[in-house]
């Protein structure tokens, strides 16, 4: 759990990502910064195209060809990972910082047994372990992910269900006892009935080992259930951050508000239609004048300042750690009724 006195395990500072041949279109990610602490679950939430996956890929040095980090630091154990050599970075990825992707079927190697895939990760990062020790660790992480039958190590991915394959991905991520796991929409490809089991498994395993979990999702239901802290992304920027209760009870940014209003709640009037936020974010945002959310904002009525000045992420009058990037966030603070997650 987050202890404000402790040092972050990982600090992302001022990350900008832009196309190599910019052609004046601007950045895809602008000034994305966050800290993550031991044992906490930090949710990165936003609709499709808001920049969540690019943030994860940048941290893992996996940006697609044609995109580059144009600024930013990623501090892990007092070193900026982005400045390390490729060899030094490869020692950290998979051992200290692991990633779980959305679709296990395309992440697992179809021609290797799942046990061999766990073993491969262990032998790469912990060469001193004997094969017997690696097998013991593989069985241990399998059991941590709720698979009690060690014979499953002998299975090929196509012999397992989607839910089991995602548990294997979690086992591979946990194998080397990483400090940080980034999970990019880890349950989106799964049947709803197994989504909760897989999320519970992932969070429990992280809590037990003190691993920090960065959970990327567009699902505010998952955020409410699993996050300790929330970062809301829109148009390649962080527009709100705070602890989960603050975000759900007093959303300061109209985009966060809209995300929450799109979620059905049991207490809702069944006749009331769900909010649909019209429009969609644009692809390139960095050099946009004014607020990137202006064309979809239900609150600002295109006031002058929203058209001319991009709001900066700043602390609310509430104090504490709740920040938002909206010129009128303190009006929202005065008027927003509590929402129960
Ligand atoms: N290889 C690329 N070249 C150019 N633009 C890209 C590339 N990859 C992503 N983008 C753009 O960057 C923006 C952010 O994409 P990203 O995949 O990070 O969004 P996301 O929030 O993770 O969405 P989703 O939930 O759909 O994965 C989008 O506008 C996307 O079109």
Automatic annotation (TrEMBL):
Compartment annotation: Cell inner membrane
Q: Which SMART domains match?
A: AAA
Task: Write one Gene Ontology MF term.
Answer: ATP binding
* Primary localisation category: membrane
- What is the recorded membrane topology of this protein? Peripheral membrane protein
Task: Kindly indicate whether the keyword Nucleotidyltransferase belongs to this entry.
Answer: no
Range of residues in the leader sequence: none
What are the entry keywords?
ATP-binding, Cell inner membrane, Cell membrane, Membrane, Nucleotide-binding, Translocase, Transport
Q: Which InterPro entries match?
A: AAA+_ATPase, ABC_Ni/Peptide_Import, ABC_transporter-like_ATP-bd, Oligopep_ABC_C
Domain of life assignment: Bacteria
Q: Name one Pfam family in it.
A: oligo_HPY
Segments forming domain ABC transporter:
12-260
Family to which the UniProt record says this protein belongs: Belongs to the ABC transporter superfamily.
The identity of this protein, by name, is ABC transporter ATP-binding protein
